[in-house]
Amino acid sequence: CFTFIKVMMILFNLAIFLSGGTLLGVGIWVKVDGESFLKIFGALSSSILQVVNVSYLLIVIGAILLVIGFLGCYGAQKESKCLLMMFFSVVLIIFIAEVAAAVVALVFTGLAETLLTGLVTPLLKERYGVNDTFTHIWNVTMTEVHCCGLNNYTDFNNSYFYETHNSYPRQCCDMVEPCNSTLAAERDVELRGCLLQGCFKEILEEIKTNAGVAGGVAAGIAALEIAAMAVSMYLYCRLDEK
C-alpha cells in the first residue's frame, strides 16, 4: 500500500510539474507575443482572463505548479519528510487562499469590484493606446462582450487615449466614431442592462450563467488538493514508522 501510494504521488505530481512548465511557457509566450496568442485563442476574449494581465497570471500559476509538482514528486521519490511537509504546507496555504477568495467573491462582490477598479482603471488610463498588446486585449474584450471600460466609459476620462484622440474608444459608442462624452453617456443610459455597460458586470453575469460549471471545477480542484494533502501526510507519518 505504501509503495502504491508513493508511486501514485510521484506520477500525480509529475503531471502537475509538467502542467506548470506548460503554463509557464505559455505565459512567457503571451508576454512576448500576446497578439498572436489572442488570434489563436480568440474564444478567451470573453473570459475574466482578459481583465487581468494574462501573461503574468499564467506565469504565476505555472511557477506555483512547478514548485508544488517538484516538492511532491521529489519528496515522495526520495522519501524526504522535509519536502513532504513543505508540499503539504504549500497546498494548504493555496487551499485556504482559494476558500478565502471564494468567500470574498460570493459575499463581497462589491468589494471585489472596488479592488478591481482600483487596480485596473489606472492601467486603462495609462496603458490603453500606449501598449499594443494591452490595447488589443481590451479592444477584443469590449467588442466581443459588448462592454466599455471596467465600470463604464468614464474609466477613460483623463486617460492617455482620450487626451491623444479627444475621443473614447469606439466600443463605448456602439462602434460609432468619434465617440464623445455626450454620445457615450447617451448610449450608456440607453443600453444599460441590455448591451453596453462595464466589462466587470458583463463578466460577472457570464460567471453567474456558468456558475454550475465553475462550481464543479472548483470543487474538483479542492478535492484534489485535499487528497494530495492527505496522501502527503500519510507518507510523512509512514516514514516516521519506518
Give an account of the 3D structure.
There is one protein chain. With 242 residues, this protein is mainly alpha-helical. The chain has a domain at 97-214. Helices cover 75% and strands 0% of the residues. It has helices at residues 2-32, 34-40, 54-78, 81-107, 109-127, 132-145, 160-165, 181-191, 199-209, 211-241. The longest helix has 31 residues, at 2-32. It is elongated. Mean pLDDT is 77; it is low at 43-52. It is a multi-pass membrane protein. One of its GO terms (cellular component) is plasma membrane. Interacts with SLC19A2. Interacts with NTRK1/TRKA. Its main location: membrane. Keywords: Glycoprotein, Lysosome, Membrane, Transmembrane, Transmembrane helix.
Q: How far apart are the termini?
A: 14 Å
Shape designation: elongated
Mean model confidence by pLDDT: 77
| Helix-strand string | HHHHHHHHHH
- Largest sheet: number of strands, sense, barrel closure: none
Number of strands: 0
Sheet/helix structural class: mainly alpha
- The count of helical stretches stands at 10
Strand content: under 5%
- Helical proportion? over 70%
Unreliable runs, pLDDT <50, ≥5 residues?
Answer: 43-52
- Radius of gyration over all CA atoms, rounded: 22 Å
List keywords for this structure.
242 residues; 10 helices; mainly alpha; single chain; elongated
Quick take:
The chain is mainly α and 242 residues long.
Task: Set out the fold topology.
Blueprint: H1 2-32, H2 34-40, H3 54-78, H4 81-107, H5 109-127, H6 132-145, H7 160-165, H8 181-191, H9 199-209, H10 211-241
Helix pairs in contact: 1-2, 1-3, 1-10, 3-4, 4-5, 4-10
